Every structure is written in structure tokens, then in C-alpha cells.
Amino acid sequence: MSPDLMVCSEELVTDMPGFFAGLPQRTLHGQTRSLVTYTPSMFGMLDELEVAAAHDVTVLFIGETGSGKTYLARLLHELSARHDQRCLTVACGALPPDLIESELFGHVKGAFTGAESDREGKFAAAVGGTLLLDEIDVLTPQQQAKLLRVIETGEYEPVGSNDTHISSARLIAASNCDLQQLVGMGKFRIDLFYRLNTLSFHLLPLRERPWDIEFLARIFAKQESGTHGIELRHIEPEFLGALRQYDWPGNIRELENVIRRAVLYSHDGVLEPADLPGTIRPPQGQATGLADDGQEPLTLGDHVDQIEQRIIEQTLLRYDHHRVRTASELGISRVTLYNKMKKFGMLG
Length: 348
Fold this sequence. Notes:
It contains 15 helices and 11 strands.
């Protein structure tokens, strides 16, 4: 841990076990990054990611903007046997269509106007490492055909050259779009889709991961306080409640930006609702944390019970109310599951 991060009070992280104690989780650790989730429907994906990382195959990530595709691609690289090689990214959506091919495969001098010298493409630069192609859906049919050839044979030619090169890089593709729908619309090659879809992962949007929001918020708060040298001692429950109620169209990237803003605007070492943007800040009457009927706000234990109940309900639905499989997934005994269901009034 960087010494700079110690500017943030340890309370921001040390009180996390009190909130998350007993909640099932899954974790993947790379060399420089980790993925921690308290969302049961993601547990299987993490297990499959670990398997995918161990084998030299092409992987596809599908998910909304900001849902963590690039982060997961780099984590997969760190978990693979190629972890000591380069991991490069081509942001296909940020490049003019006529330059994507040169960015991928390189070009020779005189291949087009402005090509004043030979240039190495990302497939060559990645050598034996990993190459992430983000927003792969923007590729033209001709570019898709050339990409399919690289995946199947490793062969490609730089723009303007007849010399065939061999790529030894591992390919990870990512898209914000449902590629199968694009296939149906005639905008994406079906053979490339099936080649990419062998090992594909659909990333859940943050709004479907409510029990991860507070965990990520605390981690981001700790990081931002260290980065900007701002002491933080406490996060108000109303601040966290507002985060859980928001829809997060920008997903994890938006959450990180919101927490950064909140840390910069914070006062006296406390994050409170007033530090949030107006679109996320709760209405004036709800800022106190009181319920609509004027009763006292929920305690920490009440919040834990609510989240635990939601996790159990979701896992039961996932396994068609099969209690043995549900208990196994949650990492608890069948008796413990029964007692918790009884506690939450879920028996009947």
C-alpha cells in the first residue's frame, strides 16, 4: 500500500468488515489489481475467468460503458502465463475508420498519404503479450475478415505490404453492444462472432450490483483521499444510501468520478450527501435518513440484514429455490440458510 493512501482514515476500510461480515464474496487477485464482488450472480463468472486466463484462447467481454471491461482484460492478462509480457489496448471507437487497420497491422512507407515511414502495428508491438480490441463492433466487414484471419492463423499483412507476418499475441475483444443482434442486422460477421463467442463474458451493470456499490465507494474514497492529500475520517450513511439508490448509467467509471468529486468538496474529513452532484443527492426531506413515517433511520445491522436478505432471495431464484445448491453457492450450511430464511420471514 502506498504511504500516501494512509492520509485516509483507516475507519473507511476497517469498518467495512462490520458491514460486509458474513456476506458471501468472490475475489480474483492479479499482480497489480483485484476484483472483489458481493454479487452472487457474478461468482460463476469469476470462476470462469480464472479458467479462461489459464488457457491461451480469445476472450470476449460484453458490457455497458464503464462496467469494467478494460480492467477485467488487464486482470485476465495478469492471471495468464503472459503476465510478464505487454498488455496493449486499441480503442477502435476512438480511431477514424481508415486508420484502424494501420493501428492494428501497421503500414509501410508510402502506403497512404502521410505514411512517411514504416510503422509497427499493435499486433506486432504486443509480441507475446495480450492485445485488447475495445469497441470491436465498429470494425468494417473487411477489417472483421482480416481480424478473423489473425485469430485463426495468426497471419496478417501491414497496410501497403505483401509480406505476411505472424502474430503471437493473445486477443481479447470488448464491446458495448450485443454482437449477436448486430449479426442479425447484417453488421457483424457471423463467423467472427462465433469465433469470439467461444469464451464470452457479460458484465453486469453497476445498478444490478447494489451490494458492491458501498465496497467500491469506500475503496475509491481511500484512493482519492491519498491522491489529493485530503484527510477523510467518516462517510455518512445518507451518502452511501444515495449511492445505492442511483441508477449509474456510467457504471463503475461514473462512480469513481463521483467519489473523486465528493472527496474534493468534502469538509472536516466527512463525506456527506451535500458533497454529491445534484442528480445523485437525495431530496431535502430524505437527507436526514428518516423514514417517510418519521421513524428512526435503520441501524447498520438493519442495512446488513436487508442486503443479506436480497442476496439470499437472488440466489434462491437463480437456483429455482433449490436450498442445497443455494447454500453451497453462498458458502453456508443448509441449516444456516434455513435459519436465515426463517429470520427474514422467507419460509412459507
